[in-house]
Amino acid sequence: MSQSNSIQTANSKLSKNKIYAVAGLFILCIVPLLLSQEQYYLDIVFQAFLFAALASSWNIIGGFGGQHSFGHAIFFGIGAYTTAILFMNYQISPWISIWIGMLISLFVAFIIALPTFRLRGAFFSIATLIINQLVLVLVLYYKEITNGSQGILLPYEPSFKNMIFENRMAFVYIAFSFMLITIFVSYIVLKNKLGYQLQAVRENQDASRILGVNPFWVKMNGLFISVALTSMGGSIYAMYIRFVDPYLILSVAEIGAMFVLITMIGGMGTLSGPIIGAILMMPIDILLRGSLGGVRPGLNIVVFSLLLIIVALFFKEGIVGTVKNKLEQRKTKLLGEYSVETDKTRNEVNPNAESS
Amino acid sequence: MGQIIISGILLGGIYAIVSYGLTLIFGVIRVINFAHGSLLMVGMFMAYYLSKGMNLNIYLMMLIVVPLMFILGVLIQKYLLSKVINEPDMQLFVTFGLLLLFENVMLAVTKGEFFSLDMNMGTIPIGSLVLDWGRLINLVAAIVLAILLLLFLNHTKIGWAIRAVSQNRYAAGIIGLRVERLYILAFGLGSACIGIAAVLLTPIYTIFPHVGFNFVIVSFAVVILGGLGSIPGALAGGMIIGLLESLSGYLIAPELNQIVWYLLFLLVLFFRPAGLFGIAGSEEGGVK
Amino acid sequence: MVILEIKNIDVYYGDLQVINNLSLSIEEGGITSIVGANGAGKSTLMNCILGAIKPKRGKINFNGQDITSQKTFEIVERGISLVPEGRGLFPFLTVEENLILGAISKHAKSKTRENLDRVYSLFPRLKERSKQRAGSLSGGEQQMCSIGRALIAEPKVILLDEPSLGLAPIMVKTVMDTIEQLAMNGYTIILVEQNVMTSLGISKKGYVLQEGRVVMEGSGAALLANDELRKSYLGV
Questions:
Q1: Are residue A25 and residue A44 in the same domain, yes or no?
Q2: Domain CATH code at residue A163
Q3: Which B positions 116-155 lie with beta carbon below 8 A of chain A?
Q4: Mind listing the pLDDT tens digit for each residue in A294-339?
Q5: Under 8 Å between Cβ of A287 and A303
Q6: In this structure, are residues B207 and B48 in contact, taking their beta carbons and an 8 Å threshold?
Q7: Do C104 and B177 touch (CB under 8 A)?
Q8: Complex ipTM value
Q9: Which of A14, A170, A197, B35 could bond B98 through an S-S bridge, CB–CB 3.0 to 4.6 Å?
Q10: Quick one: CA dihedral A246, A247, A252, A253, positive or negative?
């Protein structure tokens, strides 16, 4: 009796969460329409959606799998450069090159992961950071292909085929769709075997072997999905700003670490964490850059970094985890032991991203 | 070619001295400190402003900068990192936050200007070779500091206690060592070493808020290459990286001067994580 | 005379209670054994006496003084040393460095040299290996080093947590002989062992722990003769 009851509550809770999620996304979907006349605000909305998607992509290997890569800018860069180079030199439509970029990213991810997945914890993070710098050096050196430190400036030739639009609104909805894709993919990963296996590896890599999990391939599969999406984001970003600047695109501080920090602040290893992190942080960051940054460069990031330190020290589970815990505490008080039990039957990820 | 090797060794001295602080903080007590380079930058700005303000020789600033950096390190460990002593991931985030904080506070203060001490100490010609005074002083200091640190870690009780804490924190606690204090002391000393390096580097480098970033990467490479926690390893690691950078800049291409040591570092990380001079297995403690 | 008295302590790990209203009183001198299955709370009790874990309720008195809220280093200074489970050596320090670090308390510090020589005469093997890394010693030698490190702190009471674990049978005998020797020299020994037969055999008193409670106590010989205990722990 009590069991069937708890399953029912679990189901109703799951569907309740789904309703919240759909409602939230619907609101996000109409926000751009309200701002349609304000190009500045549309830029903010675009960046928020894009980084929400990118942080979500990072979260698949970094949050679910606990592998804190600081080198994801590499795949963002591969997407951006592939699209830009093929567009400039061969007039290949970004709609096609986006897939080519993904393939190259998968290949590069495989090469990088072969040795780096032997490393654990901070050693993995440090290795990915160094590889990121290595890639930057190579990109700057092979000028014939990449145009070196000059970067690649793309011509303004609006057309659907070129993925260049007169109206910024189109990009906002491309970024929105991209975000929906990453949420959907993350959801699928989480609800399937790969999701459980990634979490098992995160909690205890050695113990996961006993459960018949091959940590190397589990991480590799997680990484493949993560980098394919990241590369897609790079392609979209390249066509949006039409300037591929190696120092920005391949920057650890401004791109690679950003994915990590947004996810950390939002709630690592949760579905909604990276999205909420980006939707909150990106507008604050860009608006502060406009106001404070105008007075004193860097002040906007000072705010950001203080927030990061506070979250890492006191709210380790990020915004989502902290709020969820608070709600659950309240509910436990109201309902007694009962609802805690139902909660454990849910498939939600433990936001405690402790790497092993 | 002789000149290339000389400048490689001098560069090695710079990389070595920059890494000693991280050797203590990451190598010995296994605290992941991404803020290492930005602490160096803060120290360089301190040295620069103090030397300008008081109109005194830059090397005298060590008397002020080193204690200040010690205090800064103590505060960071005591009030921030001690809260996440068991969580390497959170250490990474906190220190990354500190990196962003220090760099951007300095960016706001300086508005992104570049500074350099306009002191020309000149060079010493030896035959056909030319040695830069600032770099030579730094090299000598790097060797002296290595010896002092080695003596401290291997021949004083506090040195043993600091190493003991990093090797078995539980056992250190139950025999009556005051674990938290030792962490704070070690971080403070590491930070003081960064202060020494900062003063020595101020006459050599142009100072700007992001000057530390490259040194973070170099330092992690030196510390891991030399073997976590090994002071002679850090000196040797610094020399290897300095020479490789100098030689590959000359033999391959100036733009690719760092690529060989990046690759060497990755190879060591993958195949001999204890480092070239570390005891096999010693890397397992603290950081997994 | 009672040297160590534990009164009604409760110890928790988070929400999990591992020690439940436990009381012991240890007489000065001789060996007291604490036996019990895995997870009975033996190691927790050791750590609790040493102040590494604080009890939620209850009191611990040492030499008539309340040490419940004192820090570990203060308790070590008063004269309680622990030889932890798994030896707890610092593997990359030398044997001698490991030993000297044991002399942390004020009164022990001044007599480090003297005590070191005493440890070396007790364990000549350690003297031979004094410059070797502790991690390179055999299991038995490591156990001696760990006991030596406890002795150098000049304790009155020595807690030993599973000293025979993982040792070859011949080594177990040596370690047990050493412990008896220490008791004869006037140290008060509290011995936690899986090896119930041996440990009760050399103990003047024994306590049996189960799920964080004392379920039986008595002289070592009486407990060894107890049918219930023999059934559950000795399988005979």
A1: no
A2: 1.10.3470
A3: none
A4: 777 788 788 888 988 999 999 888 888 888 888 888 777 666 544 4
A5: no
A6: yes
A7: yes
A8: 0.91
A9: B35
A10: negative
Residues A29, A107: one domain?
A: no
CB–CB of C92 and B175 under 8 A?
Answer: no
CB A293 within 8 A of CB B104: no
Q: In sequence order, which residues have a C-beta less than 8 Å from that of residue A18 and are 6 or more positions away?
A: none
pLDDT in tens, B176-203: 999 999 999 999 999 999 999 999 999 9
Expressed in percent and rounded to 5, the helix, strand and coil fractions of chain C are: 40, 30, 30
Question: Distance between CA atoms of B92 and A122, rounded to whole angstroms?
Answer: 8
- Within an 8 Å CB–CB cutoff, is residue B1 touching chain C? no
pLDDT tens-place string over residues A25-56: 878 777 777 776 778 888 899 999 999 999 99
Which residue of C77, C90, C93 is in closest CB contact with B176? C77
H or E segment and range at residue B181: helix B179-201
B165 within a domain of the structure (yes/no): yes
Sign of CA dihedral A307, A313, A318, A322: negative
A touches B (3+ CB pairs < 8 Å)?
Answer: yes
Distance CA A355, CA A295 (A): 40
Phi (first) and psi of residue C20, to 5 degrees: -125, 105
pLDDT at residue A117 in the model: 92
Q: Which carries the bigger pLDDT value, residue C195 or residue C19? A: C19
Structure tokens at A33: 């329409």
Average pLDDT for chain B: 89
Q: Does domain C1-79+159-236 have CATH number 3.40.50.300?
A: yes
Q: What are phi and psi of A120, to 5 degrees?
A: -125, 155
Give pLDDT, residue B283.
Answer: 61
pLDDT tens-place string over residues C98-136:
999 999 878 888 888 999 999 999 999 999 999 999 999
Residue whose token pair is 């590799």: A220
Domain that holds residue A1: 1-34
Minimum mean pLDDT among A122-126, A207-211, B67-71, C185-189: which range? A207-211
When pLDDT is cut at 50, 70 and 90, the band that residue A352 belongs to is very low
